[in-house]
Amino acid sequence: MDKREFLKSLIVFVPAGGVIASLAKQAGAKAPEPAYQAKNHYYGMGIEIDKCIGCNRCVEACKLENDVPDEPFYFRTWVERYTIKKDRTVVVETVGLRKKKSREIVEQEDVLRSFFVPKLCNHCANPPCVQVCPVDATWSTEDGAVLVDKNRCIGCRYCIQACPYGARYLHPRTKTADKCTFCYHRVVKGLLPACVEVCPTQARIFGDLKSQASRLVRFERMNKIHVLKPDLNTQPKVYYAGLDGEVR
Predict the structure, then answer these.
(1) In terms of residue numbers, what domain contains 214?
(2) Of 70, 122, 139, 156, which sees the most CB atoms within 10 A?
């Protein structure tokens, strides 16, 4: 998303409140909703590991919504399958859009447990990607999203290398960095991110951390929450419930 276009989209001409209310009353209509105020929100996402069934509908919806290339190695969000063997070794596979032969065949009798872990950009409060960008193309919004200004991005890949979560890639057509945006174009209109909307088991929860009534705040209260790689002090805003210690 272009930073300048984003800022322009939030500037709405609104006459004096009294005039609006008066006209609305005369017309028998409701006064228009106030323009979106980023300062009033701070977004994050919760993921309940036990509910994820690895169906990949979130990945497919994300690709359709955000024009992500169809090839399985381009993604804004993805799902990993973790298989813990009885000898305590861990096998990690990315669940692809097309069925692929597993690199390692694990016999059923050797499996201790297996589970799926959805991953995406963590929209860190202390994002390394923003710090390393030489042209300020990567930036944090007031309401907690980390975005990329494609008009400024020079495709240097510094942010891709700096992201400890592997959540960025270079778009093959635009030659600019691309990543999850929390479907920001939807969120500012009051809609949910595409991945959250299509999840059949409600394994993903999106919400406003400033609202005590949001599902995300309730999710954090009711569960033991973990984040990925907390030792890096990136302050992620993607929170996991039921996260196993083997997840990296």
Answers:
(1) 39-76+120-241
(2) 122
